[in-house]
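[agent] plan:
  1. take the single chain provided in the ticket
  2. run structure prediction with default settings
  3. attach C-alpha cells to the ticket
  4. add a short note for the reviewer (M.T.)
[agent] executing step 1
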Amino acid sequence: MADDQPLIARWRLAWKLAVSAGQLTLRHFQDSGLKVENKSDGSPVTAADREAEQHLRAGIAAAFPDDAIVGEEYGEQPGTSDWCWVLDPIDGTKSFMSGVPLYGTMVGVLRGARAEIGAISFPGLNEGMHAATGQGSWYCKGDRAPVQARVSARDPAQARLLLTTCDLMLARRIGLGRWEALAGKFPVTRTWGDVYGYLLVATGRADAMIDPVMNVWDAAAVQPIVEEAGGRFTDWQGNPRHDGGDSVATNGLVHDLVLAALRPGVA
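[agent] step 2 finished; step 3 output follows
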C-alpha cells in the first residue's frame, strides 16, 4: 500500500483542504452577529458552513476534476473516476454557533464503496487527525510534528470514558434503562460529541463513542481514522461501514459490550 500514489495524493490534499477550510470558519466563530438558518430537515446552517464547503469543492475540482463529490450543504456532484470525496464543512454546527470549539471540518474519500481516507481539522482547538488505508492514523497539534495515533488498550474491566453526542437522543432510541445500564459500566460518561468524540477514541483518551444518527458525511472521514488507529468503527449491527445510519467507535476491546447494549432484544 506504500506505493499507492493515487491514494497518497488524495490523502495529502484531504488534510491540506481540511485545515484551510477549517481556518475559513474561524472568521465567523464566536461572532455575535452570526446568522443561523434552519434547513428543511431542521438542522442549522451558517455562512461559515457554506463558505468552507465551497472552498473544499474548488480545491478538489482543481486537483482531481474526475472525482465525485458529496457534501452536506451542496449535495452530489457526479464523477467518472472510482473516487468520491465526502464533505462536512462544519460537523457540530450547534457547537460552532454557540461559540464552543468542539467542531470539526471533515473530508472523507471513498474508493468505490470503501472509506479509505479521512481528514478532520478542529480549527478552534488547533488540532486534527488524518489517516489513509495502510498508512496509519496521525494526530496533529499546532506546529508539532504529527504523532501516530493509537486507541486505548483498556478492556471492559478497565474502561474509563464513554461518549455520545446527545444522551437524551440515545436514551430515546434504546430506552432510558438500557442507556443507564451501559453508562454504568464506564466510570465517566460525557457528551463531548459530534466528531470530537471520535478524535478522543482514536487518540486513546476515550474508549467508546456512540451516535444514534449518522449521515455519510458525518462518518466517511471517521472510519479510516479510527480503524487505522487500531480501533473499530461499525454501525449498531456491527458492520464496518460509513453509511449505516448510526455508529459505534471503540478501542475494539469494549466494542461487543457496547453493541450488546444497543441492539434491540439483546440483554
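[agent] step 4 note for reviewer: Residues 235 and 247 are 4 Å apart (CA to CA).
[agent] ticket updated
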